[in-house]
Amino acid sequence: SNGTFGERLEEIILKYKIPMVKPDFEWAEYPDVNIIEEKLSNNPDVKVVAMVFHETSTGMINPVYEVGQLCKKYGKLFFVDCVSAAGGENIDVVRNNIDVATGVGGKCVGAFPGSAYICAKESLLESIKEEDCKNVYLNLYKHYHYAKNIRQTPNTPNLTLFWALNAALTNIINKGLDKQIETYKERAKILRNGIKELGLRVLLDEKYMSNSVTSVFLPDRIKVDDFLAEMEKDGYVLYAGKGKYYEQNMFQVANMGNIKIEECYELLKIIDKNIKKLQPNNCN
Fold first, then answer.
1. CATH of the domain at 270
2. Which of 21, 140, 144, 283 is the most exposed, fewest CB within 10 Å of its CB?
3. What is the tens place of the pLDDT at every residue in 71-121?
4. Are strands 54-55 and 60-61 parallel, antiparallel or unpaired?
5. CA distances to 63, 87, 109, 258 from 106, in Å
6. Which of 175, 201, 220 is the last residue of a domain?
């Protein structure tokens, strides 16, 4: 865990009263794989390793491949939260040795928010027993066997979300996942170059950044809430930093979805305009 969504995984695990071993990493700290291996080596009873692929609260891509190799070495199941990575990053469940990946229809996939899915090894799904599942509506045993045997869900689903998810996935297949990822990379590069030209500081080293989220610090004495309010007046919704980064007046830009190149350049102009407007020495 090195951000909000890693902490959310921790919260879920604790709610289900599952014993847990957790390496201690700070927010926006790139996880040290040696520390993770030490935890695995010293705790042979660990059965599953869980981590977030793209920690959206900072925009960091975590070392999924390296941790996947450790899971292979020590014989552990590997669960990865791919919610904000699917459609925007090369997840490659085989190369990364991922046993279970979760995702949603929104974000980089480009469907409506509200749908979610699980991608898991068939052998793992076949091994699940009904008594293993502690949830009623999200009972994985039921969902898998209903889907496999009668191509249905245990409860009435929101079919409009299914339709939108299917349409979004079809669009990705027709375009090609590699091209989709390159599109996100291109948009992110335009935004990051522009942000640096405006003299703004970003949170992460570029080698750790995702293809779709950039975390940016405002100049001194500009409050993030004031800045976001001005951006909203111009029709742009950006996000305030979470946790300690909110206090440091950090905001986040997400280039998820069907965003055009010219829209990236226009956003940079609006950011520049509103920063100048909010500068304390502005006489207007």
1. 3.90.1150.10
2. 283
3. 999 999 999 999 999 999 999 999 999 999 999 999 999 999 999 999 999
4. antiparallel
5. 23, 10, 6, 12
6. 175
**Cβ–Cβ under 8 Å, residues 115 and 165:** yes
Q: Which residue segment(s) compose the domain that 265 sits in?
A: 177-278
Q: Across-strand partners of 6?
A: none
- Let me know whether 58 and 165 are in one domain: yes
Is residue 139 a part of any domain in this protein?
Answer: no
Q: How many residues does the chain have?
A: 284
Mark whether 169 and 266 lie in a shared domain: no
pTM score of the predicted model:
0.95
Q: How many structural domains are present in the chain? A: 2
Q: Is residue 14 included in any domain, yes or no?
A: yes
Residue 94: CATH number of its domain: 3.40.640.10
Q: What is the pLDDT of residues 14-40, one digit of tens each?
A: 999 999 999 989 999 999 999 999 999
Q: Are 66 and 33 in contact (CB under 8 A)?
A: yes
Tokens (6 digits) for 28: 């926006």
Is residue 129 one of the residues assigned to a domain? no
